[in-house]
Amino acid sequence: MDSIIFGHSLYIDKEYESFINKFSSTTGSDFPKGKMGNYLTSWYEGYIYCLMIGLNINSRHYKGFENKHQKMPNWSNQNINQYKYCIARVIGREDIINELELNSREKILENYNGLSELLKKVKEICDQFALGGLHYLRKEYDNDSTLFDDPFALSTIYENASKS
Predict the structure, then answer these.
(1) DSSP string, 6-56
(2) What is the pTM assigned to this prediction?
(3) Of these four, 19, 36, 72, 81, which has the most CB atoms within 10 Å of its CB?
(4) What's the pLDDT tens digit per position in 107-153?
């Protein structure tokens, strides 16, 4: 199972990349000047952050990644445990259990040709929640262009999203 999850590719949509770079590196490069406290160092971290916000606010976007390209072919060793935690949050939701028909062993065997197929569907759902989180961030930024200026901005945004 770990090797399947580790092999989930990370995508990014060109439309969102410049916005994402306001709070997270999409290239793994150094922090922009003055951004150290409120900047995520990789798209792995950015994706997880967006996914967690999407889960917290229950926002799922079914369309997105229209102009996608693969950013990373698999998960980094540094971030795989956070991603697995997110997967556990996704498949632990009653609505997802019902959607994927994970209620019984028989349904699982009937609907999926192995764990790989099930985890592929879970990755699609994770992407949808990550897009939901990204759309939330973009809306917040559109309302306040100084959103990411505070050194504690990402923490504050996450806390506010957790209260929603």
Answers:
(1) HT--EEEEHHHHHHHTTTB-SS--PPPTT-GGG-BSSHHHHHHHHHHHHHH
(2) 0.89
(3) 72
(4) 999 999 989 999 999 999 999 999 999 999 999 999 999 999 888 89
